[in-house]
Specification:
Layout lengths: L9 E8 L6 H11 L2 E8 L2 H7 L7 H9 L6 E4 L7 H6 L4 E5 L13 H5 L3 E4 L7 H10 L12 H10 L19 H8 L10 E6 L6 H11 L4 E6 L2 H8 L8 H9 L6 E4 L7 H6 L2 E5 L7
Parallel strand pairs: 1-2, 1-4, 2-3, 4-5, 6-7, 6-9, 7-8
Helix pairs in contact: 6-7
Pathway: Lipid metabolism; Phospholipid metabolism; phosphatidylethanolamine biosynthesis; phosphatidylethanolamine from ethanolamine: step 2/3
GO molecular function, one term: ethanolamine-phosphate cytidylyltransferase activity
EC number: 2.7.7.14
Length: about 300
């Protein structure tokens, strides 16, 4: 079978990056990369390397390793991956080639981090996800005003602050306060590929905002999945999240949050725009055996 670019597939494919504030754009790039081969090996840079070339990351290296390892298309994670991708690195991990998005990643000296593997013809390219970047998300967090989903003028200062904090190599967003990602059924189906529940499965249900998905969310879902055979996650609407968390939230839109949750291994299914109150009818509709609720630790 051919890879998405028409070339031959590999046995082991390499991806690398910072993967800071892991979002569905990162996950989509890894999903596409997995289509190039049988196994996907992902190198994640450590805090020191990122700080040298881009500035300090928001998530620690241990958080980033754990998040990437739990994305459903990732087979192996290589910690402390070098910032500059070399043929020696590909050979060390027995990878046929590396896959990267259609953007340029530069070192602190302004050099293309993939120059060597490109010259060796061991570089393949996939499309990045339009409408989301780490800079965009950081800028939304910096605004945190009562109407941060609404565009407004005079946002240059906030965008510049986001650029200096961001570790995303494609960080350019003129909107910052608006989710520019447009969800399609095709994208959701690509993320949701998986099995339907069997009649004998013990179905576990959890719901929440899952805004700015992080290791705390991941740990909660991993524990929830252990209580049954099939995990369904309800994602609350933007309006509901606004009502119980305040007008600053959510930072990410409903469809962005849906894709973020769907990208992780413990999750089998997602209910888009789930009800805040769970009824008997809802439980019967999904054949739910266990409803799980998270209690915030104030300690």
């Amino acid at each position: 079978m051919e890879a998405p670019d028409g070339g031959p597939k590999g046995d082991r494919v390499w991806c690398d990056g910072c993967y800071d504030v892991v979002h569905f754009g990162h996950a989509n790039q890894l999903r596409q990369a997995k289509q190039f081969g049988k196994k996907l090996i992902v190198g994640v840079h450590n805090d020191e390397e990122i700080s040298l070339h881009k500035g300090p990351p928001l998530f620690t290296e241990q958080e980033r390793y754990r998040m990437v390892e739990s994305i459903k298309w990732v087979d192996e994670v290589v910690e402390d991956a070098p910032y500059v991708t070399t043929v020696e690195t590909l050979n060390r991990y027995d990878c046929d080639f590396c896959v990267h998005g259609d953007d340029i990643t530069l070192t602190v000296d302004g050099k293309d981090t993939y120059e060597e593997v490109k010259k060796a013809k061991r570089y393949r390219m996939c499309k990045r996800t339009n409408g989301v970047s780490t800079t965009d998300i950081v800028a939304r967090m910096l605004f945190l005003t009562k109407n941060h989903h609404v565009p407004e003028e005079n946002m240059d200062e906030h965008l510049e602050r986001a650029r200096t904090m961001s570790t995303d190599s494609v960080a350019e967003s003129p909107w910052t306060r608006v989710s520019r990602f447009v969800a399609t059924t095709k994208t959701i189906v690509e993320f949701a590929e998986g099995r339907a529940p069997r009649p004998t499965d013990k179905i576990v249900y959890v719901c929440g905002a899952f805004d700015l998905f992080h290791v705390g969310h991941l740990s909660f879902l991993e524990e929830a999945a252990k209580l049954g055979d099939y995990l369904i996650v309800g994602i609350l609407t933007d309006q509901v999240v606004n009502e119980y968390k305040g007008k600053n939230y959510p930072i990410m839109s409903l469809h962005e949050r849906v894709l973020s949750v769907l990208a992780f291994k413990p999750v089998n299914e997602v209910v888009i725009g789930a009800p805040y109150n769970i009824t008997d009818e809802f439980i019967d509709r999904f054949n739910i055996s266990v409803c799980l609720f998270a209690i915030k630790n104030e300690g």
